[in-house]
Automatic annotation (TrEMBL):
<feature type="compositionally biased region" description="Acidic residues">
    <location>
        <begin position="34"/>
        <end position="43"/>
    </location>
</feature>
<feature type="region of interest" description="Disordered">
    <location>
        <begin position="1"/>
        <end position="68"/>
    </location>
</feature>
<feature type="compositionally biased region" description="Acidic residues">
    <location>
        <begin position="1"/>
        <end position="11"/>
    </location>
</feature>
<keyword id="KW-0256">Endoplasmic reticulum</keyword>
<dbReference type="GO" id="GO:0005789">
    <property type="term" value="C:endoplasmic reticulum membrane"/>
</dbReference>
<keyword id="KW-0968">Cytoplasmic vesicle</keyword>
<keyword id="KW-0472">Membrane</keyword>
<feature type="transmembrane region" description="Helical">
    <location>
        <begin position="112"/>
        <end position="138"/>
    </location>
</feature>
<dbReference type="GO" id="GO:0031410">
    <property type="term" value="C:cytoplasmic vesicle"/>
</dbReference>
<feature type="transmembrane region" description="Helical">
    <location>
        <begin position="150"/>
        <end position="174"/>
    </location>
</feature>
<protein>
    <recommendedName>
        <fullName>Vacuolar ATPase assembly integral membrane protein VMA21 homolog</fullName>
    </recommendedName>
</protein>
<dbReference type="InterPro" id="IPR019013">
    <property type="entry name" value="Vma21"/>
</dbReference>
<dbReference type="Pfam" id="PF09446">
    <property type="entry name" value="VMA21"/>
</dbReference>
<dbReference type="GO" id="GO:0070072">
    <property type="term" value="P:vacuolar proton-transporting V-type ATPase complex assembly"/>
</dbReference>
<keyword id="KW-1133">Transmembrane helix</keyword>
<keyword id="KW-0812">Transmembrane</keyword>
Length: 188
């Protein structure tokens, strides 16, 4: 079932786009608004004289056009947002409140940095040492495995060492946090 539509040929002078019609409507609305404003002004002239005598300022209404997006105007009226650098600068220059005083001492900070460096070094060196040692001396020399199988087992053992180092770091951090909580409870 197809419906056939007959189209008329229209000359160029009769053609109108939807946008041209909307602009004509806006122009008509402007004229209506301006003529309505003039009529209101003539009717309100005696009232304005009374209001001016009383020195009461009258709020002015904005002319809202239908094709203007209000959000554009709202965005223009907003204060400029701060960028990341400005936010960081503001955070660093604000004074510290009493409830936000530093709980950890410089000694605690030094210990945390030392542990971070130590565990980072262990994450790099220990898996390589374990892999090399197990590959050559254990899996090839002792068990006489083929090279590909020995490398696979050595790689698995190195991955286990990495997991063990991460677990040790997490355990130490958890233990330090528990000690800090107990210390805080004693202070209160």
């Amino acid at each position: 079932m197809s419906t056939e539509t007959d189209f008329e040929l229209v000359e160029e002078s009769e053609r109108k786009s939807s946008t041209s019609e909307s602009f004509e409507n806006v122009d008509e609305n402007k004229e209506e608004i301006s003529s309505a404003d003039e009529a209101e002004e003539t009717l309100e002239a005696p009232k304005k004289a009374e209001n001016q005598a009383e020195n009461e300022p009258e709020p002015e209404e904005e002319l809202k056009l239908p094709f203007v997006d209000q959000s554009i105007k709202d965005d223009a009226e907003k204060p400029a947002e701060k960028d990341g650098e400005q936010l960081v600068q503001d955070a660093l220059t604000q004074p510290i409140r009493a409830d936000q005083e530093q709980f950890y001492s410089p000694e605690d900070n030094r210990r945390a940095i030392t542990l971070l460096i130590l565990f980072s070094a262990m994450m790099f060196t220990l898996p390589l040492l374990v892999m090399f040692t197990l590959y050559y001396w254990v899996f090839i020399d002792y068990f006489h495995l083929p090279a590909d199988r020995a490398m696979l087992y050595a790689g698995i053992c190195a991955a286990c060492v990495v997991v063990a180092i991460c677990a040790a770091f997490a355990w130490i951090a958890w233990k330090e946090e528990k000690e800090a909580e107990e210390k805080l409870k004693k202070l209160k």
